[in-house]
Amino acid sequence: MADVRRIDEVGSDNRLLYSDETYAVIGAAMEVYYRLGSGFAEPVYQESLGLEFGLRSIPFVAQTKLRLKYKDFVLKKFYRADFICFDKIIVDD
Predict the structure, then answer these.
(1) How confident is the model at residue 88 (pLDDT cuts 50, 70, 90)?
(2) Do the Cβ atoms of 89 and 65 come closer than 8 Å?
(3) Which SS3 state, helix, strand or coil, does residue 60 take?
(4) Residues 88/15, Cβ–Cβ less than 8 Å
(5) How is the chain split among helix, strand and coil, in percent rounded to 5?
(6) CA-to-CA separations, 22 to 5, 7, 48, 62, 64, in angstroms, rounded
(7) Model confidence over 44-84: pLDDT tens digits?
(8) Pairing of strands 60-70, 73-85
(9) What is the pTM of this model?
């Protein structure tokens, strides 16, 4: 029987690429949610999450414009990421 955790041809075991960083960001987001709850507009959560990142010494840049590609074409439009944390961007060429 095949390993049910295997998700691709090279045998990934579902480990996160940047697990420590991922858990730090999720922990910060959970703290913001725990403190604020639901019902606020997105800018309130963005500002609060930026403050929480600072409290936890998570390096980040907010509202970063990222260039997009579709197939071999570079789009004229940009994607504005809420946060880039730990100076890590995953690019799939």
Answers:
(1) confident
(2) no
(3) strand
(4) no
(5) 35, 25, 40
(6) 20, 20, 18, 17, 19
(7) 999 999 999 999 999 999 999 999 999 999 999 999 999 99
(8) antiparallel
(9) 0.74
